[in-house]
Amino acid sequence: MKAIPCVLLSLCVVSCVGSKEFTIHTHPEGAKISINGEPQPGETPMTVKISQDKDLGIVATKPGYELAAKTITTRSSWWLSLLWTKHDPRAQYIEEDEARLELRKIPSAADFRPSAIPPYTGGGGATAPASAVPTLRPMPKQLLESPAVS
After folding, report:
1. What is the Cα–Cα distance from 56 to 33, expressed in whole angstroms?
2. What is the pLDDT of residues 79-122, one digit of tens each?
3. Adjacency order of strands within the sheet including 32-35
4. Global pTM?
5. What is the pLDDT of residue 108?
6. Which neighbouring-strand residues pair with 4?
7. Cα distances (angstroms) measured from residue 80 to each of 13, 72, 73, 94, 104
8. CB-based burial of residue 143 (10 Å sphere; 0-12 exposed, 13-18 middle, 19+ buried)?
9. What percentage of the chain exceeds 70 in pLDDT?
10. How many CA atoms within 13 Å lie on the side-chain side of 67?
11. Largest alpha-carbon pair distance within the chain?
């Protein structure tokens, strides 16, 4: 019976510590990928070997598309925290085996349609036409009748 926890712990250590295969998909395919600022060779879909002791910052770029980014965070392994502290990098692992990123097409000048702009409804500025002359109010009688201050 004592062997079962040891076997489970050793399986967790083997599967959680170190590196693992990680697959990255984008829509559309053919994007360049950088992980934690390091450009990766090839285009998506791709499988890369990652270290599980730190978070992943994944950025996908493709000409004509906005860049897409995703962060994959590490988790603390309960089993590994028995060997090391909870925040020790050796007790961290990445649960996900893949990431999917959606790239949005950048609109070109040919895609521009003036009718797509909503009509101006006012607000945010002057409410009266610029040519309007302001009206003056008469001065209050109390100010007219008060003695001048010398």
Report:
1. 12
2. 555 555 555 555 567 778 899 999 999 887 777 666 655 666 66
3. 38-39, 32-35, 56-61, 68-72
4. 0.57
5. 77
6. none
7. 7, 20, 17, 13, 40
8. exposed
9. 57
10. 10
11. 106
Task: Output the six-digit token pair for 135.
Answer: 């009206």
The token duo for 91 is 């007790």
The more confidently predicted of residues 111 and 128 is 111
HEC readout, the chain: CCHHHHHHHHHHHHHHCCEEEEEEEEECCCCEEEECCEECCCCCCEEEEEECCCCEEEEEECCCECCEEEEECCEECCCHHHHCCCCCHHHEECCCCEEEEECCECCCHHHCCHHHCCCCCCCCCCCCCCCCCCCCCCCCHHHHHCCCCC
The two three-digit tokens of residue 64, written as one number: 């004509």
| Token pair belonging to 7 | 């076997």
Question: What pLDDT does 90 receive?
Answer: 55
Report CA dihedral (56, 98, 73, 80) to the nearest 10 degrees: -110
